[in-house]
Write a structure and sequence with these properties.
Chain lengths: 452, 305
């Protein structure tokens, strides 16, 4: 925290911070419209595809009796994975009293909310009978990992929303009281309601700090569970490639890689689009780059364990699976994910230059693409090689390739996730104003006084 | 044979009761309203506990057909005191595929859907190829029922693993969990969906099939209730299948109708189960493909293409 400033300086500084951080709320130009149009159009096309799927059955996908889980499950795992960054940045680093990550917390929570919400939606899309979704609650059997997953995903979504909303309350009051005249009236109305009559007294701050602390601690076991349980959907089966004990930590480590990359991309987008260079500083990118190197190394370690140990033994079914990944039909994708998702980024990010905003954002895009492909090759190759031969079925039962409907619905899911993030960024400041101002030396009395 | 005679006896009874139900149903019932005491006609009926009784026709009252929930309840419980078991003699299989045809007809399956699939197997490079019919193994430690989130698939007390397609949500976790690839899914509208529209669901045959739900081999549980052998077993022209009750220690051959001791059959012929190392404890036993009655014909399809 910087030295406490004089009230006059503080007010000026707070006005500037508020002005800068509400720019995303105020800004409404051609590009905004275009961006919304693109997202809504793609989401709409995807929904249309979903309609066709409901009418004709899951047969419109490339999935069949042998490869019975496909791209939808890969999407599901991917969305669960990126959502995990919320818990790492806004809880773990906070609790470890690491200061530099504070301005990034809200971005991480945006990713968490969008990711876990879409994970929930996309899994319903994979059901043969989405109309019977309520059976999960009516007839739920607690012995099934799916029930564990439903439980932890909904819990994580709830905690993430609270962890996003509670630190937002003082900000909403701040904008309500000090916001510029250029903020649309209806948004001001929303802030007024959501601020819940906040007036910034010590009692209220105490409550916020207390609630945040409780949530930050609560989210640790829940966050770890959501991806561990998701990995158990695979690890609980007997199939080669899934039947492994390290899937829990392996998935968690992979999730941090994907999520950190997603956060870097968003930070860069906000920095450029809303001119937040002073807030998402080079220092933040530098630290995020270092964090990425660290989580990539952990993930690489798990990858070596996951592939090297069985490859040394080459048990029958395991051997077929591994040969298929290393030199077979999935080899290009496998080596692409290992090289562009782990090895090359780790190497590059060791250099300071590649931890600057633009290079790091580009590397993060590659990491994020590789993360999605990685989920694809976790799900599909295993199913293509069951223990018993695949015979007396049409040729397209033997190899999976996604259909246009699946691609449409996948695009829908990405568009919808970006839509959630965009709406959050356009509605609420992307950095916690009061926390940031306080760290810059503005005291709480100034924060809660009305503008004029 | 004792078993056989009992079966035919029960069969005859079934026919007579069935006929009484059908023919008698409406006419008798309408008549019994009018003639309450006069008629001295009696009819032989089998009670649910298996006793044969004679009752006056005048006392007949309409019985409720088992409604859906009762059928499902009955289907979930299974046949008390039974422990069904199948023995497949690989030395007899010549890939006639009558089992597959019969099964697909009985369970209203599309041509690419197999509750039972005759696979071409070769265990090692130098060993002889052979045909292996593969139904659901009806494991005693079933990996599929464990993972079902809604209890749509379950293990009955008589050993059969069933699926309730009125409850299945179509998550396909059971397909992923089954190491024997025994389960199929209705990716589209099932075969002849219009024809069977409105037909009451029979959980023990899993018909009519439903779009977006799982289907699987059920050992023809509906036929077992009628004391008949499963469709595949009865359809086989080559004597491949033995089927019976482990509690009685008796299995009957579907082709020759010979009944033998189950334990002696599996002991004498070095029977084995598929992938015992997985700990699934299958209820389907295989007799090794030695001294095969029919040579393997044609090319073997690539195992792991």
């Amino acid at each position: 925290m910087e030295k406490t400033k004089s009230p006059e300086e503080s007010r000026k500084l707070l006005d500037k911070i508020t002005f800068d951080l509400t720019r995303s709320i105020v800004k409404r130009d051609e590009l905004t419209h275009f961006w919304y149009f693109i997202l809504i159009m793609f989401a709409g096309v995807g929904l249309w595809g979903w309609g066709i799927q409901i009418r004709d059955g899951l047969g419109v996908t490339g999935m069949r009796d042998y490869v019975s889980w496909g791209m939808y499950i890969a999407n599901f795992v991917f969305f669960v994975a990126i959502s995990l960054i919320g818990f790492l940045i806004s809880s773990s680093l906070h609790l470890l009293k690491i200061k530099w990550s504070h301005p990034i917390s809200r971005v991480a929570e945006q990713v968490a909310i969008a990711g876990v919400a879409l994970a929930g939606i996309i899994i319903v899309n994979d059901m043969g009978r989405p109309d019977r979704f309520l059976n999960v609650f009516l007839h739920g059997r607690f012995a099934s990992p799916i029930i564990w997953d439903v439980t932890v995903v909904t819990t994580y979504l709830t905690i993430s929303v609270l962890l996003y909303y509670i630190p937002l309350i003082p900000d909403l009051a701040l904008i309500r009281d000090r916001g510029g005249d250029d903020i649309p009236k209806w948004k001001m109305q929303v802030y007024k309601i959501l601020a819940l009559g906040w007036n910034g007294n010590a009692e209220q701050y105490k409550l916020v700090y207390h609630a945040m602390r409780v949530l930050m601690i609560l989210i640790i076991p829940v966050g770890l569970s959501i991806h561990t349980v998701t990995s158990w959907l695979f690890a609980a089966t007997l199939r080669s490639g899934w039947d492994t004990t390290i899937f829990g930590p392996y998935f968690v480590a992979g999730a941090f890689v994907a999520g950190a990359a997603a956060v870097v991309i968003l930070m860069y987008a906000y920095r450029v689009r809303y001119k937040l260079g002073e807030y998402f500083e080079n220092l933040h990118f530098d630290y995020m780059g270092k964090l990425l190197v660290f989580v990539c190394l952990v993930y690489l370690y798990f990858n070596i364990n996951e592939f090297w140990v069985p490859a040394y033994k080459m048990k029958t079914a395991e051997g077929i699976h591994l040969r298929n990944l290393f030199v077979g039909s999935f080899a290009p994708m496998f080596w692409w994910t290992q090289m562009t998702g782990l090895i090359i980024p780790i190497f590059l990010m060791l250099f300071k230059f590649f931890r600057k905003p633009l290079p790091l954002a580009i590397i993060s895009v590659f990491i994020l693409i590789a993360s999605w492909l990685k989920r694809y090759i976790i799900v599909i190759p295993t199913l293509e090689h069951p223990f018993l031969p695949v015979q007396n079925v049409p040729e397209h039962f033997k190899h999976y390739s996604p259909t246009s409907i699946e691609i449409m619905i996948t695009i829908f899911s990405f568009a919808a996730a970006l839509l959630i993030i965009t709406v959050l960024a356009k509605m609420f400041p992307v950095i916690t104003i009061w926390e940031y101002a306080e760290e810059k030396g503005v005291n709480k009395e100034i924060l809660s006084e009305p503008k004029k | 044979m004792e078993n056989k005679s009992r079966r035919s006896f029960v069969k005859k009874l079934g026919v007579s009761v069935g006929a009484a139900g059908l023919v008698g149903g409406s006419s008798l019932l309408s008549s019994c309203n009018q003639v309450e005491t006069t008629s001295g006609d009696t009819i032989k009926l089998l009670t649910s506990s298996g006793e044969l009784v004679e009752v006056s026709k005048a006392q007949l009252k309409p019985a409720d057909m088992p409604n859906l929930t009762e059928q499902q309840k009955r289907g979930r419980k299974g046949l008390p005191g039974r422990k069904f078991v199948m023995v497949i003699d690989l030395s007899k299989c010549r890939n006639a595929r009558e089992c597959m045809k019969g099964c697909q007809k009985h369970h209203q399956l599309r041509p690419e859907q197999h509750h039972i699939n005759v696979l071409q197997m070769q265990d090692a490079e130098d060993t002889a190829p052979y045909y292996m019919p593969k139904p659901c193994q009806h494991c005693d430690n079933p990996p599929c029922t464990k993972v079902c989130p809604v209890n749509a698939t379950f293990k009955r007390e008589d050993g059969i693993v069933l699926i309730d397609n009125e409850r299945c949500i179509g998550c396909r976790f059971c397909i992923a969990a089954c190491p024997y690839s025994a389960r199929v899914f209705n990716w589209f509208e099932p075969r002849d969906a219009e024809k069977y529209e409105g037909v009451t669901y029979n959980i023990e045959a899993n018909v009519p099939q439903k779009k977006g739900t799982i289907s699987k081999c059920l050992f023809s549980a509906d036929r077992l209730r009628d004391n008949k052998l499963p469709t595949c077993v009865s359809s086989c022209p080559n004597g491949v299948y033995w089927f019976g009750d482990q509690n009685e220690d008796a299995v009957t051959n579907g082709t020759t109708h010979e009944t033998v001791s189950f334990s002696k059959l599996v002991r004498d012929n070095a029977a084995y189960t598929l992938m015992p190392e997985l700990g699934t404890k299958p209820r389907v036993y295989y007799l090794p493909p030695k001294d095969r009655a029919f040579p393997f014909q044609g090319e073997i399809e690539d195992h792991h293409s």
